Amino acid sequence: MTTRNTSRFWEWGRKIICVGRNYADHAKELKNAVPTEPVLFLKAPSAYVREGSPILFPRYSSNLHHEVELGVVIGKGGTAIPQSRAMEHVAGYALCLDMTARDIQDECKSKGLPWTLAKAFNTSCPVSEFIPVERIPDPGDVRLWLKVNDQLRQSGCTSQMIFSVPYLISYISDFISLEEGDLILTGTPKGVSAVQEHDELQAGIEGVITMSFRVERKDH
Ligand SMILES: O=C([O-])CC(=O)C(=O)O
Ligand SMILES: [Mg+2]
Fold first, then answer.
1. Containing structural domain, residue 101
2. Does residue 173 form part of some domain?
3. Counting ligands in written order, which one lies closest to the CA of residue 189?
4. DSSP state letters, 153-181
5. Which of 14, 15, 39, 190 could bond 181 through an S-S bridge, CB–CB 3.0 to 4.6 Å?
6. Global ipTM
């Protein structure tokens, strides 16, 4: 019998729950209102991509954006988890990208349609190695950065998040039960921008981890 381990959470086929507009500076750069409640959407587990494989530019888009985010890996499931106990449900973290077909998202927004094809396509969720919970003593004080071809595009700190990690775990689990192996993407700071085929993306959590991905065009 094999024991599953959250250190390979991307193999579990569990939910990827994403929080949008969780940094006021990013909400403003896309001309969105700063939310008073978390904005949630989902990615499919088939969206995971790991270092060594490329991010594939979807053929239906011509404006693919990077969004660097802190991912929270759930270690213990639960429903209606109180904020005071939320951190007991965290197994660890991952550095994540929420790749977004911005043109498709804009179209969906204007038509009042869901963002699925803008957010959940194959390779839309690049993830780092699993980061055990002890490596990040305070998820509210994590410095994230992202470079495209060595040029710094995003640099932010999770202290700027509108809704904290414990708040998000509690809020989400009121409506959507959390399960072991789920991943929560906590939103992106400002600086999102378009990537092109052959670009090299490098991202990091200061002092903890870095990762890199290449962008390729999907030709079928
Ligand atoms: O900008 C968006 O599409 C919403 C989002 O995912 C974020 O704020 O991280
Ligand atoms: Mg995002």
1. 6-217
2. yes
3. 1
4. EEEEEGGGBSS-HHHHHHHHHHHS-B-TT
5. 14
6. 0.98
Under-70 pLDDT residues of the chain: 1-4, 218-220
**Mutation choice for ligand 1 from 25, 34, 42, 98, CB with most ligand atoms inside 8 A:** 98
Contact 139, 64 (CB under 8 A): no
Could you report the per-residue pLDDT of 149-200, keeping only the tens digit for each?
999 999 999 999 999 999 999 999 999 999 999 999 999 999 999 999 999 9
Number of domains in the chain: 1
Burial class (CB in 10 A: 0-12, 13-18, 19+), 202: middle
The model carries a pTM of 0.97
Whether residue 178 lies inside any domain: the answer is yes
Establish if 1 belongs to a structural domain: no
Q: Which residues surround ligand 2, an ion (CB under 5 A)?
A: 67, 98, 188
Query: Is residue 141 assigned to a domain?
Result: yes
Please check whether residue 169 is in contact with residue 93, taking contact to mean a CB–CB distance below 8 angstroms. Answer: no
Q: Which atom of ligand 1 is nearest to the CA of 67?
A: 9
Q: In this structure, which ligand is nearest to the CA of 23?
A: 1
Strand pairing of 55-57 and 209-217? parallel
Helix (H) or strand (E) holding 72: strand 68-74
**Residue located via tokens 């965290």:** 90
| Cβ–ligand 1 contact at 20 (below 6 Å) | yes
* Token couple for 60: 């239906």
* Atom nearest to 30 CA in ligand 1: 1
Supply the CATH number for residue 87's domain: 3.90.850.10
